[in-house]
Amino acid sequence: MTLPRLNALPAALLALTVLGTGCVSQDSHDDLLTINRQLEERRTTLEQEVANLRLANKQANSAIAALEARIARLAALEARYTEDQATIAEKNKTIAQLRAEIAKLGSGQDKIVVVEGLPPEVSDALRDLAAANPDLMVYDADRGMIRLRSDLTFGLGSDVVSDSAKTALSRLANVLTGGAAAQFDIQVVGHTDAVPVKSARGKQLYGDNRGLSSNRGDSVARVLIANGVSAGRVVSGGRGATQPIEANNAKGQSKANRRVEIFLVKASDAPAPAPAPAGGAPTGGSGGGVGEGAAEPADPAIFK
Q1: pTM over 0.70
Q2: Are 147 and 140 in contact (CB under 8 A)?
Q3: Over the Cα atoms of the chain, what is R_g?
């Protein structure tokens, strides 16, 4: 900003006065000096305001530059976040696929090859059977699998199939022996929760949870065979507590984890039966289980 030369104005006024009057009174001279001083003060004030405006403008430009730099950094971080989210999603997808593969492979000896899409009539029949027995079983169409609740399939600490479960299994056998279902082999797998077998009787009969789950899987398989399913189509075994479908509580118990799963598998992929667990009764014993004919103990978990 260009300012007028304010300090030259009083001298010009004085010169004009002298020329016009020929002389200047003392009062007029004092007035001119006062005006000159006021103009000087005004000029100084204006110069300071201009300096302040220039400083404020410089600070504003600096703040704008800082904000622009911050916006650029935030944009870069947003782009990186978006890229990282896509990477995480892809990794989570891979992890889910690997977990699914691990669940199918198990120990490697009892591999389950899930049928990709059962024939509609088979799937419908299994779905109808599960719907008619909702407390006992559920049907998983994606895996071609019927899941039985152990609490209703067996007595306390027992591998003996209950009468109500036998009735439902006989109907399942009818489905498995008829029509398109006959082309599949049957894989029966027992599971337990994480509470170990504690009673002396239970340890004698089963050895451990794997032995108990194996015996229960074999007991279900025998019921199917007794109801017309060819023995050559059926294999059975147990995985103990190694594949929970729900987190066990602090005591290691989860009713959902105590189950027997029956899979329809490709005939060429059905594995050989696993050997009986060491220290327990051979798989397939269908004699009276622990607690048969006796009162239930105060703590049912001791017979797990």
Answers
A1: no
A2: yes
A3: 45
